[in-house]
Amino acid sequence: MRSRINILVIDDHPVVRQGVVSMIREYGDKFHIVGEAVNFQDGMAKVDALAPDVVVTDLIFSGDSHSGIDVVTAMNARQPPVRCVLITSNMQGYCMVDAFKAGAAAFLYKDSDGREYMKAIEAAHEGMTYFPPQLAGELNKWERLPKLTPAEVRLMPYVANGLTSKVIAREFNHLDQPKEVDSRTIDQHKHNIKQKFDIDSSGALVAFAIKYCDDNRLDYKHLAMHTKRRLLDF
To answer: Do 136 and 209 share a domain, yes or no?
Structure first.
């Protein structure tokens, strides 16, 4: 008889979390829910207390500076490591690539059916990697993506702060006088980034910029106060 898989589910949305828990329980005693958690800190405490074999975790926790990728990183640092299945409702390709680079065993849409969840959990438990077939092409595409240009890299901290193209252009002109940059140039840079990385909205572009800055240690959180005041005055 195959061993039971002990599972911890981490999701800050009660309805989603309870739905995932109920769906897993429908698949019999082999899949055993040992606990539920609502965010990163709660999840870490539950892992210590309950010693799950597999963690099923949301990618984004509302109002929490940590993410599901932080859960994956923490679980891989444990001895022995704990395998993780990441779930999300809004797939962005770069998130999936980041998840696997961090060591995630599987990546699923939240609304995947029970069979997909079971395949992902079993693969994680057995030391393998799993993602639905429809995501295979997306993952391959993102692994081959081009790099940002120097001008686009320079733009990232400003985009991460949600600043408009007009404000960014004014700030660049303040720093680069007498060189002039207009908002249309900034718009074009933003458009190029969206095209390169298949980003479908301004909000997703901001999220991408934040992640890029965090990964590459670009300071976007602590722009000088006088700079912030100057920007907001425009």
So the answer is: no
Q: Are residues 90 and 11 in the same domain?
A: yes
Provide the total of helices (H) and of strands (E) in the chain, helices listed first.
11, 5
Tens digit of pLDDT for each residue in 32-87?
A: 999 999 999 999 999 999 999 999 999 989 888 899 999 999 999 998 899 999 99
Task: Round the average pLDDT of the chain to a whole number and report it.
Answer: 83
Q: Which of 104, 119, 143 is the last residue of a domain?
A: 143
Domain boundary among 143, 172, 191: 143
Mean pLDDT of 151-162: 87
Residues near 201 by beta carbon (within 8 Å), at least 6 away in sequence: none
Integer angstrom CA distances of residue 153 from 39, 52, 198, 219: 31, 40, 17, 12
Residue 19 Cα distances to 32, 36, 79, 181, angstroms? 15, 12, 30, 51
Domain that holds residue 120: 5-143
User: Would you say 198 and 91 are in contact if contact means Cβ atoms under 8 Å apart?
Assistant: no
Tell me the CATH number at 54.
Answer: 3.40.50.2300
Model pTM score: 0.62
Structure tokens at 209: 């910029």
For the chain, what percentages of helix, strand and coil (3-state, to nearest 5) are there? Answer: 55, 15, 30
Count of structural domains, the chain: 2
36 plus 115 within the same structural domain: yes
Angle CA(8)–CA(11)–CA(14) in degrees, nearest 5? 110
